[in-house]
Write a structure and sequence with these properties.
The protein is α/β, with parallel strands linked by helices. Helix content is 25%, strand content 25%. A nine-stranded mixed beta sheet has the order 1-18-14-17-16-15-5-7-6. It has a six-stranded mixed beta sheet with strand order 9-3-2-13-20-19. It is globular.
Length: 410
């Protein structure tokens, strides 16, 4: 059981079991700000998906999350629309996307990841120009540090930002307090302010990309499972699905935490070294006077982050010792909420309440737990697989799916 001294600070509200869709980390997309009221919700303007599986396609994409939808959209933009088939075992956006927190961190520790994130942001801004609601809000990211090594990392990120023409600056502890008065700064050495960062609605973005892709000729087959990938002379030749065989030239494995399993469906198998781990998000009830422009606060030394979400705290983190998911079970066919483990979440909760003391007065709505896929070294797995020609992988995004999807698709 979790420690009472911490949990008594958050009054839990008992609620009935939710459906998978209701347990999404974002507020329903129908709730928009006045400035975005003229934008369309893709969730309310869905395009009909294909019912019959084609016998041929130039490209087959496995996985209808943000990565797969973005790849399909960019291929369609390049004129390949009618030659692209996207296969999803459930519904578009029904995998990891619905569990995402929507953090749009543009400045990353590496130059490549930063470039990919910049391209993603630009794509989502283009979607809004096209009339789609993305939920993008440029509230900025406030990184804090209580270790000298962390401040050194922030200085390296600052130099990376110059190369990508991104605005950011190093902060003193007093300046950190100026940017977010909620943050306890007594034990901090400083921070990093990135005003171009923000938050977005992953589900609406995924569906909007799907709508645009379909409008440009991409065929989307939902409730269809990939069974095997056929090869000939070391090249992808066809994909066997639950609805039949599709001949193809290229195959893209963007199946989220199922990517490793899909990789094993070919001969020779394609190694996708990822494993799903439990990933927690804490949701509070609406908090009085929580500013809507509160920045995303990231405390990597405390393993936690939090953001404002329609007047609520939405918080989470990456604990130093992750808890693997589905160790003794087969991967589920559909994404489902996992049982919460308060003992495991205890470290993150303790650090959250330390960094944001006012959170102790918030009313806890729920603690959500969903599986996220990580690679052994935490790096993204992108590009052509060495085992098979014309076989591509986009996996192991370590909970950065929406911040990377647009760039990965490009």
């Amino acid at each position: 059981m979790p420690r009472p001294s911490l949990l008594k600070c958050l009054t839990q509200v008992t609620s009935p079991h939710h459906t998978a869709r209701c347990m999404s980390t974002y507020i329903q997309a129908s709730i928009k700000s006045t400035s975005s009221s003229n934008l369309r919700n893709a969730s309310e303007n869905r395009r009909p998906t294909s019912q019959a599986l084609p016998s041929k396609a130039r490209v087959v994409i496995c996985g209808g999350g943000a990565q797969g939808a973005a790849i399909a959209y960019k291929l369609a933009q390049a004129g390949w629309g009618s030659d692209v088939l996207l296969i999803e075992q459930g519904e578009l956006g029904g995998g990891t996307t619905w569990h995402a927190t929507g953090l749009m961190g543009i400045l990353k520790p590496s130059q490549l990841e930063t470039r990919i994130a910049v391209m993603s942001r630009d794509m989502y801004l283009q979607l809004e120009e096209m009339g789609w609601y993305t939920g993008f809000k440029q509230c900025g990211s406030l990184y804090v540090a209580k270790k000298k090594d962390r401040m050194y990392q922030y200085k390296k990120m600052l130099s990376c930002a110059v190369q990508h023409d991104l605005e950011c600056k190093i902060l003193s502890p007093d300046q950190v307090k100026e940017y977010c008065g909620l943050v306890k700064t007594e034990d901090l050495l400083g921070g990093l302010w990135v005003p171009g960062d923000g938050v977005a609605n992953p589900w609406e973005i995924c569906l909007a990309l799907g709508c645009e892709a379909i409008d440009k000729g991409v065929q989307v087959i939902e409730h269809c499972t990939v069974n095997s990938i056929k090869q000939e002379d070391g090249k992808v030749r066809a994909v066997e699905t639950s609805k039949g065989l599709v001949e193809c030239e290229y195959f893209v494995n963007s199946a989220g935490f199922w990517s490793r399993h899909v990789g094993e469906m070919s001969s020779p198998p394609v190694a996708v070294p990822i494993h799903p781990c439990e990933h927690y998000h804490l949701h509070t009830k609406p908090v009085p006077d929580l500013p809507p422009d509160t920045p995303v606060v990231r405390d990597p030394d405390g393993f936690v982050y939090f953001r404002e979400n329609e007047g609520r705290f939405l918080a989470g983190g990456f604990e130093p010792k992750a808890k693997p998911a589905y160790m003794d079970d087969e991967l589920p066919e559909k994404r489902a909420e996992l049982t919460e483990d308060w003992d495991h979440f205890h470290l993150l909760l303790e650090n959250l309440l330390h960094r944001v003391p006012t959170m102790k007065n918030a009313i806890l709505e729920r603690l959500s737990n969903g599986a996220e896929a990580f690679s052994p070294d935490g790096q993204w797995i992108l590009g052509q697989a060495p085992e098979l020609e014309n076989y591509y992988v986009a996996a192991g995004m370590r909970s950065n799916g929406i911040a990377s999807a647009g760039g990965v698709g490009t």
